[in-house]
Amino acid sequence: MTEIGSSERLLEELRSWVEEETPTTDAAAVNRLVGRAENGLREAGATPERIPGRDGYGDNLIVRTPGEGAPILVSVHLDTVWDHGTLAGPMPYRVEGDKAFGPGIYDMKAGSFLAFHAVREILRQKVPTRRPITLLLTPDEEVGSPTSRAVIEREARGAAAVLIPEPAGGAQGACVTARKGVGRFDVKIQGVSAHSGGNWSEGRSAVVALARLIERVHGMVDLVRGVTTNVAPVWGGTRPNVIPPEAGCEIDLRVDSIPDGEAMEREILALAGEADGIRISVSGGMNRPPMVESPENLRLYEAARELARAEGYELPKQHRGGGSDGNFTAALGIPTLDGLGCTGAGAHAPHEHILWRDLAPRGRVLAGLLETL
């Protein structure tokens, strides 16, 4: 079995990852952490493949361990939602008791580091694995994986299983066997400008049209079917005394099934049209297909659960409303287990933290899966 080390040791190195701020939109910043990971894996004997970024995003990094047969793919992302200066301002890295705080530490630098560390130690210690391992580090998950999706899907198609060390969920640190699918849409409305006092009847308010559209979108929510919508942000208008000629919003859609995703995509796109001086355009669609719980996913979960029990803790499972890169791999029919990162709370929130004493036991379960699947 791979020797992972203590939680104290893991936290010490993880700190350097957290203090390397990696907002998705800064390719150079993300690539600095890509480079750190690349160097560490080279020192362990790997020959990483680095795929140059495009469209303003960072690089992808792939490492393959020796072995025969279809590999186990472990896919992680290095980008976070936090802008530069967050560490120096409202969210400094700090440890308070059992909690370690910092931007991106829970989502998902702890899980990404554990995957990197497990593969590095398997290589260093020359631990035999039943299958080869493919470690994939990506730069743009937090904005929907626009440049890494093709790489993720390519690697998943040849894999026997996929492991995603996104944050463990809830108070008990559940892993994830199903996720909702995600759709994103942009709405732009063109009206007619006019003076709000002297020429009111000549105007056509884009803001009023937007308000009506928002009501229609909110009416699409069906909690029984697992369909939710959210409109944010919204914008429109210039001055109080001007009938607003422009307005717009973004729409977030979440669904439990592929048919619901297809149906809701059609319904939202059908909001576009033109009438009475108002023109509405809608673009976008389903960004991530649902990750549907399958017997294969559950078999992976049972393997992880047994390893966790050997570590002295119970590993529950959950269905999660947020999407991840596991949505892509599961939709291809590849057995996928998600939420294998560290326990904690506060993803995308100022109180983001991990329960750092769980780093070692969680890391050993991840390493155990890589060795034995």
Give a nutshell description of this structure:
The chain is an alpha+beta fold and 373 residues long.
Structural summary, described in words:
The model has no long low-confidence stretch (mean pLDDT 97). The chain has a 6-stranded mixed sheet with strand order 1-2-6-3-7-17, sandwiched between helices. It has 9 helices and 19 strands. With 373 residues, the chain is an alpha+beta fold. 47% of the residues are buried. The longest helix has 20 residues.
List the helices and strands and how they pair.
Blueprint: H1 7-18, H2 27-43, E1 49-51, E2 60-64, E3 72-77, E4 94-96, E5 99-101, H3 105-124, E6 133-138, H4 149-157, E7 161-163, E8 175-179, E9 181-190, E10 194-195, H5 206-218, E11 228-236, E12 242-243, E13 246-255, H6 258-269, E14 273-275, E15 278-288, H7 295-310, E16 317-320, H8 326-331, E17 336-337, E18 344-345, E19 353-355, H9 359-372
Parallel strand pairs: 3-6, 3-7, 7-17, 8-16
Antiparallel strand pairs: 1-2, 2-6, 4-5, 5-19, 9-13, 9-15, 10-12, 11-13, 14-15, 18-19
Helix pairs in contact: 1-3, 3-9, 7-9
Average pLDDT rating:
97
Give, in spatial order, the strands making up the sheet with the most strands. 1-2-6-3-7-17
Rg over CA atoms, rounded to whole Å, is: 23 Å
Give the tally of β-strands: 19
Shape: elongated
Q: Could you estimate the helical fraction of the residues in percent?
A: 25-40%
Output the structural class: alpha+beta
Low-confidence stretches: none
Largest sheet: 6 strands, mixed
Order of helical and strand elements: HHEEEEEHEHEEEEHEEEHEEHEHEEEH
Number of helices: 9
Straight-line distance between termini: 13 Å
Tell me the fraction of residues in β-strands, as a range. 15-25%
